[in-house]
C-alpha cells in the first residue's frame, strides 16, 4: 500500500478516535454557508428534514478521497429498499483550487447523488472548524507555480478522513470511519434510516 495512503488512513483513524473521545464535550457540526457546483449559495437549511452524510476532502486527492466517495456510492446500492437515504455531501478543503464546477465534475464521477460544495477560504475554514476536521498542506516544487488562472500548482492536503451522519436538523448522529468497506458503511447507516 502506498505510503501516502497509509498516512492518510492513519490520520483518519486518529481523527475518528479524537472525535469520538470528545464528541460529548464539544459539539460536532453546525451551520454552514457554502456554494454548490452551480454556484448557488447552500446552507444546512437546504437539507432540512433530510439526513446528510458529509465527507471532507479535495479533488486533487489521489487516494483516500476517491476511495471514500466510491465506497459511499457502492454502499448506497446496498441500503435496504424503502428507506430514505441521507443526502451525500462532499465539502472541499481546497477552495483555492476547487471551484464550483470542479467539485461538480468530481462528485459526478462517483455518483450523481453526491453534492459537491466549495466556498471562500473563510467559509471552508469555518465549516472545517465546526466539524473538527484537521488538515495540513504539504508543498512541493510546483506549489508556487501560477497555473495562469490565478490558482497555484500542486500541493497535497493531509486531512482527517471520516464520514459524518447528520440528522434532519443538522445534528450529529454518527461518525463512520472512511476506510470501511461499502457493506460496513451500509450496515452502519441502516439503523439510522427512516422509511420513505
Query: If strands are numbered along the chain, what order do they take across the biggest sheet?
Result: 2-1-5-4-3-8-9
Please tell me the overall pLDDT. 87
Low-pLDDT runs: 1-18
Structural class: alpha+beta
Spatial separation of the terminal alpha carbons: 41 Å
Give the biggest beta sheet: 7 strands, mixed
Number of helices: 5
CATH superfamily: Glutaredoxin
How many domains, in number, for the residues? 1
Instruction: Fill in the CATH topology.
Output: Glutaredoxin
Order of helices and strands: HEEEHEHEHEEEEH
- Shape, per Cα inertia axes: globular
Q: What's the total number of strands?
A: 9
Percent range for helical residues?
A: 25-40%
The CATH level-2 architecture is identified as 3-Layer(aba) Sandwich
CATH class: Alpha Beta
Tell me the fraction of residues in β-strands, as a range. 15-25%
Instruction: Output the radius of gyration.
Output: 16 Å
Q: Brief overview, please?
A:
The protein has 196 residues and is α+β, with helices and mostly antiparallel strands. The chain is 32% helix and 22% strand. A 7-stranded mixed beta sheet has the order 2-1-5-4-3-8-9. It has a two-stranded antiparallel ribbon with strand order 6-7.
Amino acid at each position: 500500500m502506498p505510503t501516502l495512503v497509509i498516512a492518510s488512513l492513519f490520520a483518519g483513524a486518529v481523527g475518528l478516535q479524537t472525535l469520538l473521545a470528545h464528541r460529548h464535550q464539544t459539539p460536532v457540526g453546525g451551520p454552514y454557508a457554502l456554494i454548490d457546483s452551480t454556484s448557488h449559495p447552500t446552507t444546512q437549511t437546504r437539507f432540512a428534514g433530510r439526513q446528510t452524510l458529509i465527507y471532507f476532502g479535495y479533488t486533487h486527492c489521489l487516494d483516500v478521497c476517491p476511495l471514500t466517495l466510491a465506497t459511499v456510492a457502492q454502499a448506497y446500492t446496498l441500503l435496504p429498499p424503502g428507506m430514505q437515504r441521507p443526502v451525500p455531501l462532499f465539502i472541499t478543503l481546497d477552495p483555492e483550487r476547487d471551484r464550483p464546477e470542479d467539485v461538480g465534475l468530481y462528485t459526478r464521477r462517483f455518483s450523481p447523488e453526491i453534492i459537491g460544495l466549495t466556498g471562500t477560504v473563510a467559509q471552508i475554514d469555518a465549516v472545517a472548524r465546526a466539524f473538527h476536521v484537521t488538515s495540513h498542506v504539504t508543498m512541493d516544487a510546483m506549489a508556487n507555480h501560477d497555473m495562469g488562472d490565478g490558482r497555484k500548482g500542486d500541493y497535497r492536503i493531509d486531512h482527517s478522513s471520516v464520514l459524518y451522519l447528520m440528522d434532519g436538523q443538522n445534528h450529529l448522529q454518527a461518525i463512520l470511519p472512511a476506510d470501511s468497506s461499502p457493506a460496513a458503511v451500509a450496515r452502519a447507516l441502516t439503523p439510522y434510516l427512516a422509511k420513505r
